[in-house]
Design a protein that fits this description.
Layout: H1 3-49, E1 67-71, H2 76-79, E2 85-90, E3 94-104, H3 115-121, E4 128-134, E5 139-146, E6 149-152, E7 158-163, E8 168-174, E9 177-182, H4 192-201, E10 210-224, E11 227-239, E12 245-251, E13 257-258, H5 262-277
Parallel strand pairs: 6-10
Antiparallel strand pairs: 1-9, 1-11, 2-3, 3-8, 4-5, 5-6, 5-7, 7-8, 10-11, 11-12, 12-13
C-alpha cells in the first residue's frame, strides 16, 4: 500500500469535509440571522400598524439570572433603634408600626415625599423604592431592591406606608428579604426589545398606546421553606390612548407573561389580622 498517496487522500477528504461543514454552518447562521431580521421587521410592522409608540434607549442586563433570598427575621433589639414609634413584630418577619406622633411627608409643592421618612423611621429604608402612590386610600407601596433592581409584588419584600388627610404618616407595614445569592449560571435571556416585541405579538400592547419605560427587576418564582427564588423580569410600562397607565411583566428567561395577585394577598392578610383580633 502506498501510504503517501493514502495520506494525501485522507487530507483532501478531510479538507473537503471541513469546507462542507463550515459552509453548512455559515448557511445556518445566515438563515438564523435572516429569521431574526425578518421577525424584528414583522414586529416593527405590527407595532406600526397598531400605532404603538416605542422609542427608548436599550437597557442591557448581562448579569440577569435567578436569585434566591431568605426571609428576614426582625429582633426587637434592632428595631428599638428606630425613633418615635411603637413596633409589633408578627411571626418574626412582619413589622406593624404605629407612629407615636404622625410624621409629615408633604414637600414644598404639597406632594408626598418619602425619602426622609424612609431614612429615619424604617429599618433598611434605603433598600426600598417607591412603586405606587394611592392618594384615594392614602397609602404608598414600596418594593425592596436587590442590586438596584426592584422585586415586583412580593409580599415578603414590600413596605406599605399609610398617612392621614394632613399628609402625616400614621403607620406602616414591612417585610424584608436578606442573604441574596445568584445561581451564576449563564442563560439566554430576553432583551428589552424582545420583551416588548413578545407583548406586542401576543396582543398585550393595545392600539395607539405608548411604551413609556422598560425596567429590569425580579418576580417570585417559588418558595422553599424560608427561602424564595426569584426570576429575572422585565416591567413594561405603557400609556393607553385615554391616558391610563398599564404595567406588564414578562419572565426574562421563560418568556411567560406574569399577572400578579398582590391585592388579593393584601386582603387575605387583612382578614387574618382581623380574625386574630377577634
Amino acid at each position: 500500500m502506498d501510504w503517501s498517496k493514502t495520506k494525501t487522500i485522507f487530507i483532501v477528504v478531510f479538507s473537503i469535509l471541513n469546507i462542507f461543514l463550515y459552509s453548512l454552518y455559515l448557511n445556518q447562521h445566515t438563515e438564523a440571522q435572516n429569521v431574526q431580521v425578518a421577525r424584528k421587521a414583522s414586529i416593527e410592522d405590527l407595532m406600526k400598524q397598531e400605532n404603538i409608540t416605542y422609542n427608548l434607549p436599550q437597557v442591557v442586563k448581562n448579569d440577569f439570572s435567578y436569585i434566591s433570598a431568605d426571609m428576614k427575621s426582625f429582633s426587637q433589639d434592632e428595631l428599638d433603634l428606630l425613633e418615635d414609634q411603637s413596633i409589633l413584630i408578627e411571626d418574626d418577619t412582619r413589622i406593624e408600626s404605629e407612629m407615636e406622633v404622625p410624621v409629615s411627608i408633604r414637600n414644598a409643592k404639597g406632594d408626598p415625599h418619602f425619602t426622609d421618612f424612609l431614612a429615619k423611621y424604617v429599618w433598611g429604608g434605603a433598600e426600598y423604592e417607591l412603586w405606587e402612590v394611592d392618594e384615594e386610600d392614602r397609602k404608598a407601596i414600596f418594593f425592596q431592591k436587590v442590586d438596584g433592581e426592584p422585586i415586583f409584588y412580593s409580599p415578603n419584600a414590600t413596605l406599605i406606608i399609610y398617612w392621614d388627610d394632613n399628609f402625616e404618616v400614621t403607620h406602616y407595614e414591612q417585610r424584608m428579604l436578606e442573604k441574596f445569592s445568584s445561581d451564576n449560571l449563564k442563560k439566554e435571556v430576553l432583551t428589552q426589545d424582545e420583551a416588548v416585541g413578545s407583548l406586542a405579538t401576543r396582543g398585550f400592547l393595545k392600539q395607539d398606546s405608548k411604551v413609556l419605560k422598560v425596567t429590569p427587576g425580579y418576580s417570585s418564582l417559588v418558595q422553599l421553606t424560608e427561602t424564595q427564588v426569584f426570576a429575572p423580569t422585565w416591567n413594561i410600562r405603557v400609556e393607553l390612548k385615554d391616558g391610563t397607565i398599564e404595567n406588564h411583566f414578562i419572565n426574562a428567561i421563560e418568556g411567560k407573561v406574569i399577572e400578579f395577585q398582590f391585592e388579593k394577598v393584601e386582603e387575605e392578610e387583612l382578614e387574618e389580622a382581623e380574625d386574630e383580633k377577634e
